[in-house]
Amino acid sequence: MITVNDLHKSFKLFAKPADRLLEALTGRARHATHVALDGVSFQVGEGEVLGVLGRNGAGKSTLLKLMTGVLLPDAGQIHIDGRVTGLLELGTGFNPELSGAQNITANALMLGMTHEEIDARRQAIIDFSELGDYIHEPLRTYSSGMVMRLGFAVAIHADPACLLVDEALSVGDGYFQQKCMKRIREFKEQGGAILFVSHDLNAVKVLCDRALVLEDGRVVHEGDPEGAANLYNRIMARQAEEEEGRHQARQHGAYGTYQVEITGASALGRRSGSTTLSSGETLEVSLDLHARQALEDVALGIMIRDRFGQDVFGINTHQRQGPFRLTAGERRRIHLAIEAAIAPGKYTITLALHSGDHHLDDCYWWHDSALQFEVAGYLGPKFSGLCRLPCEIDLNASDQGLPEKEST
Questions:
Q1: Are residue 261 and residue 297 in the same domain, yes or no?
Q2: One domain, residues 213 and 254
Q3: Sign, Cα dihedral of 58, 63, 66, 72
Q4: Confidence (pLDDT) at 244
């Protein structure tokens, strides 16, 4: 359905607009060259979803613009069987002064639909978008979520053979996002090919059959979605360390007596090796302690909170093993292994050092949200709610021991 072979694309970057004119007049190069894509190749078959991951500037948007004909490649070939529609950016191809109904016609014509096809599917598009009477209002009065609804509705009803999706589903309420995901699955089951670009790692793991990772315009990984997500997170982690000074940022905001402090901390999935892991995977927390003076009663505590700030799980070493001692100047590493059988989402870890069972008497060191991690996808059986609890199901249970029904 989709074949991309040895694709190359570069752009000329000029320091100022006048340099472009001077280069044209003198013939002397006054530009720098940015290589957006460098030998990219892949295939997407019928009924297959290929995810594309990569940090900003990796080449994802350039790739999609080449595939939709917005840009032309410097070298390489792109072959797509049948009509291709793309959800690249909200409002692409829409006129804000026209009504939603008028934009259906204009946008559908650009996607290659005939007037007869548009008339036959117009009501289905309106029904799917759920815009109601707003369909006759100017698009400039729409929210971003309403524009996304209309754009997706037109694209999915254009009868495409291939669908290109670029972060379009990140806007809108949860209900409509689920509706779009359901429609994408139906499109896949009908044999459609999908190229799915997203930073939503859980969506990539759930929806995609394969995934590739772009870095500096090259394909650095192609394979199962979980492996691609793990590599992507390692790339992002390196970028965070290089650009933001993660250690210094982590130390900012800590408080306490500082008689002992945590000088280094990490929380990584045992299998993923990154801050994104699957539900059910072991979360390994490593902490480096430095005691400024001798202490006879020390407890280490952690608290995991979800994105709403709700406490999900907390524990301290005093509750498990009692207090431990530290000598003046001592450095010690403590390791915790937690089975993170919790729902997909983003979480923070608060770290604390104190005496006894709580920090109210002697708080040596405390830092809210010192670490962050994300749960995406499932390692074990799926579940609903906040966490997976031990559960046994017997489909052939005996009725022995149950009280007899009273006769009436």
A1: yes
A2: no
A3: positive
A4: 46
* Cα→Cα distances 279→202, 345, 388, 390, Å: 11, 10, 9, 14
Question: d(Cα 363, Cα 356) in Å, to the nearest integer?
Answer: 10
Contact (CB, 8 A) for 370 and 254: yes
**Weakest mean pLDDT among 53-67, 113-127, 170-184:** 170-184
Looking at the fold, whether 191 and 268 belong to one and the same domain comes out as no
> Residues 82-106: pLDDT tens digits?
878 777 665 667 889 999 999 999 9
For 137, list phi and psi in degrees, rounded to 5.
Answer: -95, 155
pLDDT, position 251: 47
Distance, CA of 52 to CA of 89 (rounded, Å): 16
With 0-12 CB in 10 A as exposed, 13-18 as middle and 19+ as buried, what is 302? buried
pLDDT grade, residue 168 (50/70/90)? low
- The residues with which 302 forms a beta bridge, in sequence order, are 315, 351
- Looking at residue 89, what is its pLDDT? 62
Q: Is the pLDDT of residue 333 over 50?
A: yes
Residues 100/147, Cβ–Cβ less than 8 Å: no
Same structural domain, 59 and 189: yes
Cα gap 381→277, rounded to integer Å:
15
Count of structural domains within the chain: 2
- Band the pLDDT of 248: cuts 50, 70, 90: very low
Same domain, 219 and 297: no
Q: Are 27 and 63 in contact (CB under 8 A)?
A: no
| DSSP SS3 for 46 | coil
CB-count exposure of residue 264 (10 Å: 0-12, 13-18, 19+): middle
Output the pLDDT for position 289. 95
Give yes or no for a contact between 351 and 314, defined as CB atoms under 8 angstroms apart: no
240 and 252 Cβ atoms separated by less than 8 Å: no
Q: CB burial class (10 A; 0-12, 13-18, 19+) of residue 4?
A: buried
pLDDT reported for residue 113 = 87
